[in-house]
């Protein structure tokens, strides 16, 4: 237990490759279900390629309180799954790995679940299985801590309960955490430094850090698995993603 690497993240829908680097680097991912949903984030949306530009795609939600947690939000009953799938199909139908990637995306989109958290968790597990990631995924509400704690205090509490030796975080969290506080708790704080690997996106100039959907459309499953396994470093002081 003493060597355990813990990561904690919000659930995202078909996130970029760095999310899967984080998953691969951790022994356990704690997935926030009882955290407040934020419209400004990437929980139910991401970016894909369409006619050479990056555009948003999203899972529409039922109206709810601005203070509702992720596991209290619902997928809209008006969500037109066929429309989203047709849009993605039109954008990528000539991509080299279209069939496998489209089948995976359709399985996620067609999952018959209205609860947003369970819908997203299913898609993350689906992608982990596809990419050979064996990290265990647990809900944050299942971890016995004081859930009124915020920010770094909550992260440290989760790490202590799960006997973390290392806390692995996405690069965007560099400014949120204090190395000294983690050291005081006997926890090594590390960040994911993802390697940017340009690939052919039809005949357009390369656009980096799109959804894993884009990566899977243009690269073989074997190549994506290799990138997930070997395309990152765990560092104490990362340089920002451009």
Q: Count the strands?
A: 8
How are helices and strands ordered from N to C?
EHEEEHHHEHEHEHHE
> Which regions have little confidence, pLDDT < 50, spanning 5+ residues?
none
Give me the secondary-structure category: alpha/beta
Strand order of the largest sheet: 5-2-1-6-7-8
CA-based gyration radius: 18 Å
| Percent range of helical residues | 25-40%
Mean pLDDT: 94
Tally of alpha and pi helices:
8
- Structural domain tally: 1
Largest sheet, if any?
6 strands, mixed
Question: What distance separates the N and C termini?
Answer: 36 Å
The gross shape turns out to be globular
Strand content: 15-25%
Describe this entry's structure for a reader.
The protein has one domain (4-235). With 242 residues, the chain is of the alpha/beta class. The protein is built from 8 helices and 8 strands. The model has no long low-confidence stretch (mean pLDDT 94).
For this entry, give a set of tags:
242 residues, two-stranded antiparallel ribbon, alpha/beta, globular
Write the layout of secondary structure elements.
Layout lengths: L3 E6 L7 H9 L2 E4 L13 E6 L2 E6 L22 H12 L5 H12 L6 H16 L4 E4 L11 H11 L2 E6 L9 H6 L3 E7 L17 H7 L2 H10 L1 E4 L7
Parallel strand pairs: 1-2, 1-6, 2-5, 6-7
Antiparallel strand pairs: 3-4, 7-8
């Amino acid at each position: 237990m003493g060597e355990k690497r813990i990561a904690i993240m919000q659930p995202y829908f078909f996130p970029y490759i760095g999310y899967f680097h984080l998953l691969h680097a951790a022994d356990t991912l704690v997935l926030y279900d009882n955290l407040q949903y934020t419209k400004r984030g990437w929980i139910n949306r991401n970016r894909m390629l369409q006619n050479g530009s990056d555009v948003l795609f999203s899972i529409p939600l039922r109206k709810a309180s601005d203070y509702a947690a992720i596991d209290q939000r619902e997928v809209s009953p008006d969500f037109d799954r066929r429309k989203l799938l047709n849009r993605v199909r039109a954008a990528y139908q000539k991509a080299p790995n279209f069939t496998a990637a489209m089948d995976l995306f359709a399985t996620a989109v067609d999952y018959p679940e209205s609860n947003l958290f369970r819908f997203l968790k299913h898609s993350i597990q689906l992608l982990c299985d596809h990419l050979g990631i064996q990290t265990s995924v647990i809900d944050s509400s299942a971890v016995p801590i004081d859930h009124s704690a915020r920010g770094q205090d909550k992260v440290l509490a989760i790490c202590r309960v799960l006997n973390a030796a290392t806390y692995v975080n996405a690069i965007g969290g560099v400014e949120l955490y204090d190395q000294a506080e983690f050291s005081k708790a006997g926890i090594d704080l590390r960040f994911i430094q993802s390697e940017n690997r340009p690939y052919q996106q039809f005949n357009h100039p390369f656009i980096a850090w799109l959804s894993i959907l884009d990566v899977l459309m243009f690269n073989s499953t074997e190549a994506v698995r290799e990138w997930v396994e070997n395309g990152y470093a765990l560092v104490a002081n990362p340089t920002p993603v451009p």
